Structures are given as C-alpha cells and as structure tokens.
Design the sequence.
C-alpha cells in the first residue's frame, strides 16, 4: 500500500514497462506465441477428428522429415548439391558444343567478310567484338540455366522453399534478422534484384533493410555460370575424372554456404551496430505439397527465367563486346587502351590474388555480372594471340599457361564473384525500394569492401605460407 | 457460468431466416458494430458479401493506406454495421494490416467480433482466435469451409470447440449460405448477453506472467480494468507505440469508462468515426 502514497501516472507505467521489457529480452514474444500455439494445438486436437485420409497424412509425414531438426539441414544441402551436380555434369557437353558451333560460325563469317573486301575494323568490331561477346554469353550461360532453372522451379512449385525458410529461421533469428529473409535469400538465387523486391513481405523496416543489404551475398544465376565454370576448370581438374563433376558441385555448394555464412555474419553485425534491434516473430504458412505441373514449370523456368536472363545478358554483352574490342584495338603509345587500364589496375588486382584484367572485367560487367568471364576471356584473347577456344581444356590452357592463373586466382575469383558490389540492376532496385541514397551506397559499397578484404586476406595468407 | 450452446443448423428452413435484410452500404443508421476478423483465404469476404449483399465495397479508413470493407445488414429490426478487417495470421506483428486489425478490435470496441476460421486448417486458425479472445470477450467463431473439411475427411466437433474456447462456434459454408442464420443469431445472443462468454486465455509463460502481473497492478492504480488488460500489458511490454500513446493520452481510461457505462455511445463513436 505504500506504493500508493504518490499518485501513479501513465508515465510511471511506461517506465516500468520499459524496464520489464529489457529484463524479459527478445524471447518475450516467442514465449507468448509458443503458449498460444500449444493451446491452439490442444484445442484443435480435441475438436478435429480425421477419418483416415492418406493424402493428408503423407504431407505431414514428409514435413516431419523435411523440417526435422536432425534431417532438415542435411537434406537441404543434399538437394542443393544434387542440383549443382546435375547442372555441372549436364551442362558441360552442350556448352562445348554450342561454343564450337558459334565460333565456327564466327570464323566462316570473318572469312566471308574478308573475301568481300570489307575493311578489317568493321569485321573486327562486328565479329570479334560484338558477336564474340554474344557467343560467349550464350554458350557459357544457356546450358547451365536450362538445367538449373527447371529444377529450381520444381522445388518452388512443390512448396519446398517455405520449408527451407522454416529450417533456417533459427539462424536468422540468432543474427537478429527476420526469418522471412531465408525466403528472400532463396529468391536471390534466381536474381538479386528479385530478392530485394521480395523483402517487401518483411514488416519491420529494420529487418527489411538488413535483408536488402545482404541479399547480394547469395550468388544469383548471373554469377552461377562463373562459379560453375571455375569449379569445373580448376577444382575438378585436381580430381580423377570420375569424381570431377562431384568435386566441382561440392565447390559450388561450398561457395553457396560461404555466401549464407556471410549473409548471417553481416546481418548479425548490422543488427548490432547501425541497425540495432531484436528479431520479430512471424507466422509462416507451410502450403500443402502440390504436384508440379510440367507445362507451368517449363514455361516459368524457360520463358520467364532462362530466356529473360539470357536476353538481359545479351543486350549487355553486345555493347560490352563492342567496348572491349575498341579498348583492345585503339593503341596509345604502343599499347592498347585495355592494356593501359589493366596495367593501371594490376597492382590492386595482384594484391587480392587476381589481376588487372579481371578487375577491369568487373568494372565493365557492372551492368550485368553474367559477362565477367566472357569479358576476361575476350580481353586475354584480344590482347594476346588469337586462338580458337573449343572447350574448357583450351580455356584452362589460356588462363594457366598464358596468363599465369593459379588455384589462388580461381578461388579468389570465386570469392570475389560472391562478395562484390551488386550488379547495376540490383543497385537500381535497392534505390527504388529504399528511396535512400545512403542505403543504396551502403548496399553497393559494403559488399565490395568485404570482397576486397576477404580476397586480400586469402591472397596474403596463401603467399605468406608459400603455398603458391 | 452458463455453458455455451452451439446453435443447430436447422434454422435455415425456418421462416425466421427471412429476417435477414441486406443493407449494402446504406450505413446512415445502425445500432450495433460487428467486426469480421480471420486468416486470409478463409472465406471471410464471402461471409461479408453474403451478409451485406455487397460485392466488396471497400471504404478507406482515415489516414490508413490499407483499405477495409464496411457494410450493413439488419436482423430482427436491429441494424448492424459489419466491418471487414484485413485478413491476418496473427495480431502480433508490426505489419500494417495486423496493426489495423488489432487497433480496431482494441480501440474500435465492436459489439461483437466474428472470427472466421478455415475448418480444414483449424489449428493454425485457432492461433488468431486465441489472440482475438485476448482482446475481447464478445466473439463468435465462424467455422467456415465445412464442405471442404468434409471432403477431406475431417470432422470438426464445434461443440467441443465452443466449450474449449468459451465462445460460440458456428459451422458454416458461406459459399452456399449454410449456417449463416445461426451465425447471426449467435452474434445477437452474445451482444444481448443471452449467451455469456468466458474466453479461453491460456496462462502466460511464468517469466512473462510476473511482468504482466506487475504491470496490471500498476494499471490497477490507474484503474484500467479492461477485458483486454492482459493484452494491453503484452503490448506495453512489446513497446507498441499506439498503445503507449493511448495510455498517455488517456484514451485507454476512456475505454474503461465506455465499457462500464450501459450506453456504449462513446465506444461506438470511436468505432464508427475512426477517432485516432
């Protein structure tokens, strides 16, 4: 009763509420939600009787396995690994076939142009510049996409993605981020710009910003071909042929996991510094499993995804091919413009285990990450001798023998591909979604800084230990 | 406590069914406000349209971006205003739609709230029902999509449901209109006090209970005795700006007065005019 000596004001209640809130911590709402869910389950169990229905049971049985604390995560990694393995093993041959065919066509066209007496610079610009850029993009990207996207779409249609989000929820919560970020991350595998738009479903502005800023750490399909090619050429080569594609798939899975790790680490860092706060609770509906419809999958994966991405890559690759050709063929003081720029960037490139040409390729590829590897190859070819590239073996020979690539170059290129600035479209999307110059800048520069830091550290460590 | 009797569905054939008069958007005069809550895709809009005869007239709630439908119907000479709240899975998150729903239930003080649930996914839907029951005593659960549940081989024991929840539960198939007469009757009985409800409120987890207890005692000092007192305490502990502001401005105290008064004019004023 002594409390009642002075009159209570609403302000006192609020002050006390704040103190209690701090004491209870972030688990407070979860506790309430849990007790509600328990009660709901109890009441529902008493009120609903099932006349044996097998379809209904099967869903629940699958869910128990797919979202089980023990099997959920390994199953997820296994499915991911199988998808990459099928993609890598299946895309290898069609890629070589396409490259051979498209470059054969280039050689014939050049012969024809020469026979007609068309000036060398028109032939060079059109065929060695524009067409070659296009041919590279098509042959490197089309087969993996045509295999990867249908498989991804099947998982989506089945209703597996919400289960992934369910499995990953606790990790994101630990990182102070929203569980739905697992879903937007999954969208990012398709396209980071799409992943950024998908964050609209996250209620809290703080958690939404975290999801936007970290979406870039999942490799989008524009970067998958780069990763898959490097894994095939460098990682797989270190293994006997029988294991080669498995090893390559393992390397890609490792990169994806690393991306997820960075997503969590950066989310954790952000939610403890500039975006402080607790993770909020949410209800995630696990939709019933549905039999995917074949026509819809083909349509979504081939028309909506594969052709859409390919088209975007092509319209960026054509001008990029032209720019590269011009840079490589306009000489100032005995060296081409490409050479000058690459030389200028070289010290920085070497410091992070790459080289000037690779960095220049990343600058040229800002509009679309898809063309990084084609750009690198075109610049190596444009500045060196002309050779026919018929398959991964020749690419390997070009990179290793002529341009001194090592396993460190390959690994750091994979790392840099995972951790660098988002592509132009994604940056533009971040600006449209946040309407904030500051956050757009953070979204572009933070990953770039992390990319430089990580590759610098690995390069320095590898050199210090004398591993190369 | 008088046990809640689930109503039977034989009434559709009874002439009393003809009492329902759809009033559409003719909202000039009404006597009661009924809120319609529920998860998305439970047939909430079908119930709304069936009762009001509207094809989803949506009216803007002042100052809100999310639209909310309103319509009217008359039953037994009493005019009801039906407010269709945004479909939500919970009332706990900070997203706009959930905020609108919970603020209307708390500050709009509808005379009765119909919570539409999907009979085929009762457990998930009950999460929302329990949250609504934290806010208000006056509620009726509309167990919709009974036809789909039957098709899926599910039997829903509404009697057990209404006993466990402490509010009437009415089985319906809104698409065909089955059970809607019983639904309205249950609503009128709850409003008139013919059926006394005693909503199930699961005990809070121990560490939360202590904090809530302490806040409730403080609030007692302010004489804030609301059916939703515990919910208000939850919201305060969560730092809900709207509820904090309501506490500071005295709006919560006003709700207490309105609840105590036999005339519910004050609360209806808030419900209808959307006083902030």
Sequence:
């Amino acid at each position: 009763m002594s409390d009642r000596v002075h009159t209570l004001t609403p302000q006192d209640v609020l002050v006390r509420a704040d103190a209690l809130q701090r004491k209870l911590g972030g688990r407070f709402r979860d506790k309430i939600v849990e007790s509600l869910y328990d009660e709901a389950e109890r009441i529902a169990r008493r009120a609903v009787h099932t006349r044996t229905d097998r379809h209904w049971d099967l869903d629940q049985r699958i869910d128990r396995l797919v979202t089980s604390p023990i099997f959920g995560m390994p199953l997820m990694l296994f499915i991911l690994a199988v998808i990459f393995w099928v993609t890598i093993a299946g895309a290898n041959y069609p890629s070589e076939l396409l490259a051979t065919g498209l470059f054969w066509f280039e050689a014939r066209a050049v012969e024809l142009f020469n026979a007609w007496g068309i000036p060398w610079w028109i032939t060079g610009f059109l065929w060695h510049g524009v067409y070659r850029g296009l041919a590279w993009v098509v042959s490197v990207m089309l087969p993996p996409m045509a295999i990867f996207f249908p498989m991804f779409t099947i998982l989506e249609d089945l209703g597996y993605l919400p289960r992934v989000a369910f499995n990953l929820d606790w990790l994101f919560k630990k990182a102070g981020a929203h569980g739905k970020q697992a879903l937007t991350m999954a969208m990012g595998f398709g396209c980071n710009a799409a992943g950024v738009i998908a964050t609209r479903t996250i209620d809290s502005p703080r958690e939404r910003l975290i999801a936007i800023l970290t979406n870039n750490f999942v490799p989008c399909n524009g970067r998958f071909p780069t990763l898959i090619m490097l894994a095939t050429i460098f990682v797989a080569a270190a293994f006997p042929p029988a294991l080669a594609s498995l090893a390559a798939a393992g390397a890609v899975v490792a990169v994806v996991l690393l991306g997820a790790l960075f997503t969590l680490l950066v989310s954790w860092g952000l939610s403890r510094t500039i975006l402080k706060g607790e993770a909020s609770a949410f209800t995630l509906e696990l939709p019933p499993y549905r039999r995917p419809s074949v026509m819809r999958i083909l349509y979504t994966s081939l028309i909506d995804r594969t052709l859409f991405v390919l088209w975007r890559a092509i319209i960026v690759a054509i001008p990029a091919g032209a720019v590269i050709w011009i840079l490589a063929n306009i000489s100032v003081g005995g060296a081409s413009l490409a050479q000058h720029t690459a030389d200028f960037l070289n010290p920085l490139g070497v410091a992070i285990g790459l080289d000037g040409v690779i960095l220049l390729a990343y600058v040229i590829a800002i509009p679309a990450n898809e063309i990084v590897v084609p750009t690198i190859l075109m610049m190596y070819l444009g500045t060196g001798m002309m050779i026919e590239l018929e398959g991964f073996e020749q690419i390997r020979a070009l990179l290793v023998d002529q341009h001194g690539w090592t396993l460190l170059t390959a690994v750091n290129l994979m790392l840099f591909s995972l951790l660098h600035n988002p592509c132009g479209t994604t940056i533009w999307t971040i600006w449209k979604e946040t309407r904030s110059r500051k956050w757009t800048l953070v979204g572009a520069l933070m990953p770039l800084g992390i990319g430089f830091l990580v590759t610098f550290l690995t390069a320095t460590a590898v050199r210090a230990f004398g591993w190369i | 406590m008088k046990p809640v009797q689930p109503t039977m569905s034989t009434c559709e054939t009874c002439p009393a069914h003809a009492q329902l008069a759809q009033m559409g958007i003719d909202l000039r005069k009404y006597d009661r406000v009924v809120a319609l809550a529920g998860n998305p895709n439970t047939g909430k809009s079908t119930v709304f349209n069936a009762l009001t005869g509207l094809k989803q007239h949506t009216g803007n709630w002042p100052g809100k971006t999310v639209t909310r439908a309103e319509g009217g119907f008359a039953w037994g000479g009493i005019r009801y205003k039906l407010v269709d709240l945004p479909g939500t899975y919970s009332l706990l998150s900070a997203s706009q739609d959930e905020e609108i729903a919970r603020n209307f239930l708390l500050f709009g003080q509808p005379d009765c709230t119909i919570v539409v649930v999907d009979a085929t996914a009762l457990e998930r839907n009950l999460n929302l029902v329990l949250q609504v029951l934290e806010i208000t005593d006056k509620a009726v659960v509309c167990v919709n999509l009974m036809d789909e549940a039957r098709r899926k081989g599910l039997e829903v024991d509404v009697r057990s449901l209404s006993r466990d929840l402490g509010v009437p539960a009415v089985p319906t198939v809104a698409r065909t209109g089955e059970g809607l007469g019983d639904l309205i009757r249950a609503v009128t009985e709850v409003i008139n006090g013919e059926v006394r409800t005693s909503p199930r409120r699961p005990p809070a987890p121990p560490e939360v209970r202590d904090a809530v207890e302490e806040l409730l005692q403080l609030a007692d000092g302010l004489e804030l005795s609301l059916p939703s007192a515990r919910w208000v305490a939850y919201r305060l502990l969560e730092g809900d700006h709207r509820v904090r502001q309501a506490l500071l401005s005295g709006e919560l105290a006003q709700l207490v007065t309105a609840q105590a008064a036999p005339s519910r004019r004050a609360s209806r004023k808030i419900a209808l005019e959307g006083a902030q």
